[in-house]
Structures are given as structure tokens and as C-alpha cells.
Amino acid sequence: MKTVTTSARLRKAVKAARREGKTIGFVPTMGFLHAGHMSLVERARRENDLVVVSIFVNPTQFGPNEDYHAYPRDEKRDLAMLEQAGVDIAFLPAADEMYPKGFSTYVLQEGTLTGTLCGRSRPGHFRGVTTIVAKLFNLVRPDQAYFGQKDAQQVAVIRQMVKDLNFDVRIVDCPIVREPDGLALSSRNTYLDPDQRRDARVISQALFEARAAIESGQRDAAAVRELVRSRIASVPSVMIDYVEVVDADDLTPLQRLRGRVMIAVAVKIGRPRLIDNIQLTVQ
Ligand code: AMP
């Protein structure tokens, strides 16, 4: 595995592969890797000749009072995991490599996808995401890029950006990887103390109960939302940011459940903010 830290070296490394006609798979991450990230890496490995993974805690997607400086980092362990998974190129740029002095061009997506859910709670977050992903796409020029459904809104926003700005890349979304008790894997789970970790189970439990209710015939979005809300609210340490029942593709709120449906949740447990969702097709 080649580890590169500059854009120039990254470009050079992927250019050589492209000239040989190799297909390029790309997985952008913020590091502190877990089995969720690795499921994306493994899929990229199966489907491409060359696999590039970036590890970059992107400052522009964090708000002023968020956890940019505290975000967990373990470069050595991450690199060992990527090496083990057969990754070809790991890209670990410093912040001033991606945002050198004088940096002033951002990618801003307007419209409904960025104005709801996490976009509403974290102003500026998706501007940071679209900007860094556009930069990384321009550097790597992947044939396919892999994202987790855990960040379903991010996938929708990136798909829209790819369409709007004519990026020549196929976006592949991959299922959420969970702990045995249901909690969605997240680098931020490491912030949870043992009590908070136990309480965090309610997030996925509430979502799974909502799925069971829908499978038993419930079609009223307000009732499903209330079920999830009250289940989570029964655990006092878990503060709800939002619970929404939306169309899984355009993220607009639903009244009756039909087609591709997503139930999306964001909570705070102490300082950490955690998100989760389930997606299902309703006849
Ligand atoms: P992050 O490092 O949190 O920015 O995540 C990098 C990529 O891994 C994103 O596309 C995430 O959606 C994906 N990811 C994070 N957690 C999970 C998970 N539990 N299951 C599947 N994909 C995930």
C-alpha cells in the first residue's frame, strides 16, 4: 500500500493506474476506522482494480461548537487495517494541503436535500461535505465511490452534486453495519461512557420497532414518528434532535407510507451526537 499526503503525489499515483486501464474505486473517510468503513473498502476492493481510501477529518464540515478538535484519530491503526484489506493507496492530507492559505471556492448545494434533517441542525455541514468530496473526486477521478447508508442524507446530497456538476463517477451506497445489539457503528461511539453506551441501544431498538409496526400494516407517518419519538424519550439521557419519516430518495416528509421510506433519527447522548436510520420499501 502506498501512503501519500500530497495532492500532487496522489494524482501521479492514480494517473499511472488509469493509463494502464485500471478501474478506480474510492472510499472517502474521516478515519478512526471500524467495520462499517471496512465494509465499504471491501466492496471497493471486490469491484475495482485500484482502491483509494482517504482519511481526512474535514474541518469545513464541522460547526464552530462541534467536535473537530476532539474527533478521534488513530492513523497507525487505520493504516494497518487498510493494508490488511488490500488497499492500494491511502491518502492522508494535512488540513492545509486541502485548504491552503487563500482557499476560497466552496461547493454549495441549495434546495431541499441540504435544508432538512442534519442540514437543518448543522448549518454549513453539507457545504463542507460537498466541497471536500468534489475536491477528492477531482483528485482521484474514481470510476466508483462508496458511501454508507448510515449517512443517508449525505448519499442523497452527493448523488445530486454528481448529477448537477457532471462528475463522471458511479455512487455506490452500502448497508449500515451494526453492533450485535443494534447500535450503528460510528467513530463517535467511542465518546460514550458505559452508561451512555447502554442507553444508546434505544436508537436502533426504536427504529426496529417502527419497522415491525410498518410490517404489521401501519401506514400513518405521524404514528410511526410518535412511536420512535416516545420510545427514545423513555430513556432520559437521550436527547432527540430530530425524528423524521421521509421519502428515502428526495427526503421530503411523508404523511402516508408508500414506496421507498426512510425513518431518520439524530440524538445527543451527553456531548456526542449520533445518527441512525432505517430504509424500507412499503407497498
Ligand atoms: P466517516 O468516517 O464517518 O465520514 O464515514 C466514512 C464513510 O463510512 C461514510 O460513507 C459513512 O456513511 C460510512 N459509514 C460510517 N459508519 C458506517 C456504518 N456503521 N455502516 C456503513 N457505513 C458506514
Number of domains: 2
Cα(first) to Cα(last) distance is 46 Å
Number of strands: 9
- Beta content comes to 15-25%
Shape call: globular
Order of helices and strands: EHEHEHEHHHEHEHHHEEE
Class inferred from helices and paired strands: alpha/beta
Attached small molecules? adenosine monophosphate
Strand order of the biggest β-sheet:
1-4-3-2-5-6
Low-confidence spans: pLDDT under 50, at least 5 residues? none
Summary, kept brief:
This protein is α/β, with parallel strands linked by helices and 283 residues long.
Overview of this protein structure:
The chain is an alpha/beta fold and 283 residues long. It has two domains: 2-174, 3-Layer(aba) Sandwich (Rossmann fold), CATH 3.40.50.620; 187-282, Pantoate--beta-alanine Ligase, Chain: A,domain 2 (2-Layer Sandwich), CATH 3.30.1300. The chain has helices at residues 7-19, 35-47, 75-84, 95-98, 117-121, 125-140, 152-164, 194-199, 201-215, 221-233, and strands at 2-4, 24-29, 50-55, 89-91, 144-148, 170-174, 238-247, 259-269, 273-282. The strands form two sheets. It has a six-stranded parallel β-sheet with strand order 1-4-3-2-5-6, sandwiched between helices. The chain has a three-stranded antiparallel β-sheet with strand order 7-8-9. α6 crosses α7 (152-164) and α9 (201-215) runs antiparallel to α10 (221-233). It is globular, with a radius of gyration of 19 Å. It starts with a strand and ends with a strand. The structure holds adenosine monophosphate. The site of adenosine monophosphate (AMP) has 17 residues, from α2 and β5. Adenosine monophosphate is lined by residues 29-30, 36-37, 39-40, 147-148, 150-151, 174, 176-177, 184-187.
